[in-house]
């Protein structure tokens, strides 16, 4: 979920949920039915695709996979144990729980910086811990970070474990900070990147690249006839909301032609 978008054409600034609500209402106005249940499985039959979710089964002649990504795990001791007890992956979702408390963000990308900035609106202190020697943020967010007195950046440092009792109480570091290898915090937000949510694609035998992202052609088609894909789950280096929307348009148009017998794509 995006806290603040400043690169969506036509809007100087808007929250991610606002855009999501707009797109949803637009689709509904055109008669699109939206189901919010999680998909359990997808199978290809002789003529259709059978989709099973928590509410039942659905059949479709074509599929458009736009499942996006999920947060990458840190994979250190204590991460799973304290998930929901001080460990989080979403500042927008959980920042309010840490009002006037001390928190840490692990990561150094633009997303990590955005997490730290969001948390600074609630927490009394925010540590941004990154394993490399330089933060990699968009210039505007880098400037905001420098000006934010609540955020302290710790570079060239890894978190080796997350400690606590009932809840998170500290982080173990592989280098000393202020004379100690342990940093007292009330919460930790992991922001070290994303992984493609490719379960559905894998079930169908869709070809993936070495990163696990769906390989698509110029028409957003996959190697499986009738299956198209768009957004962050697909291969490519430039991932923004505007590029995902553009891919969605291409994929939808290709699926429409496929259903009408006009698809001339050759697959990937």
Describe the structure in your own words.
- The chain has 268 residues and is α/β, with parallel strands linked by helices.
- The chain is built from six helices and 15 strands.
- The protein folds into two domains: 35-70 and 197-259, FAD/NAD(P)-binding domain (3-Layer(bba) Sandwich), CATH 3.50.50.60; 73-190, FAD/NAD(P)-binding domain (3-Layer(bba) Sandwich).
- The chain is 24% helix and 26% strand.
- A hairpin with a 3-residue loop joins β10 and β11.
- The model has no long low-confidence stretch (mean pLDDT 93).
Report how far apart the termini are: 31 Å
Give the helices and strands as they follow along the chain: HEEEEEEHEHEHEEEEEEHEH
Specify the biggest β-sheet: 5 strands, parallel
Helix content: 10-25%
Structural descriptors:
268 residues; alpha/beta; FAD/NAD(P)-binding domain; 2 domains; five-stranded parallel sheet; three-stranded antiparallel sheet; 6 helices; 15 strands; 26% strand; elongated
Summarize the structure.
With 268 residues, the protein is an alpha/beta fold.
Show the helix and strand layout:
Layout: H1 16-29, E1 39-44, E2 49-53, E3 56-60, E4 63-65, E5 69-71, E6 87-88, H2 91-94, E7 102-106, H3 110-120, E8 125-129, H4 139-147, E9 151-154, E10 159-164, E11 168-177, E12 180-184, E13 187-190, E14 194-196, H5 199-204, E15 227-229, H6 241-259
Parallel strand pairs: 4-15, 6-13, 7-8, 7-13, 8-9
Antiparallel strand pairs: 1-2, 2-3, 5-14, 10-11, 11-12
Helix pairs in contact: 3-4
């Amino acid at each position: 979920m995006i806290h603040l978008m400043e690169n969506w054409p036509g809007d100087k600034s808007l929250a991610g949920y606002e855009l999501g609500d707009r797109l949803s209402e637009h689709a509904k106005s055109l008669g699109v039915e939206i189901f919010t249940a999680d998909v359990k499985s997808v199978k290809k039959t002789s003529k259709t695709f059978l989709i099973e979710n928590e509410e039942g089964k659905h059949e479709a002649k074509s599929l458009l996979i736009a499942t996006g990504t999920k947060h990458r795990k840190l994979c250190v001791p204590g991460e799973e144990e304290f998930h929901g007890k001080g460990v989080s992956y979403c500042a927008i979702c959980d920042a309010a729980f840490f009002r006037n408390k001390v928190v840490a963000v692990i990561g150094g990308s633009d997303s990590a910086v955005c997490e730290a900035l969001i948390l600074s609106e609630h927490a009394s202190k925010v540590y941004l811990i990154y394993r490399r020697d330089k933060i990699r943020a968009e210039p505007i967010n880098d400037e905001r970070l420098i000006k934010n007195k609540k955020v302290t950046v710790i570079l060239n440092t890894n978190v080796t474990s997350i400690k606590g009792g009932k809840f998170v109480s500290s982080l173990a570091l592989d280098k000393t900070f202020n004379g100690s290898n342990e940093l007292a915090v009330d919460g930790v937000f992991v922001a070290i990147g994303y992984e493609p949510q490719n379960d559905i694609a894998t079930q169908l035998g869709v070809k993936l690249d070495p990163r696990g992202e769906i390989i698509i052609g110029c028409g957003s088609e996959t190697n499986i006839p009738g299956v198209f894909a768009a957004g962050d789950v697909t291969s490519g280096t430039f991932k923004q909301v505007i590029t995902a929307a553009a891919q969605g348009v291409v994929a939808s148009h290709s699926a429409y032609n496929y259903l009408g017998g006009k698809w001339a794509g050759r697959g990937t």
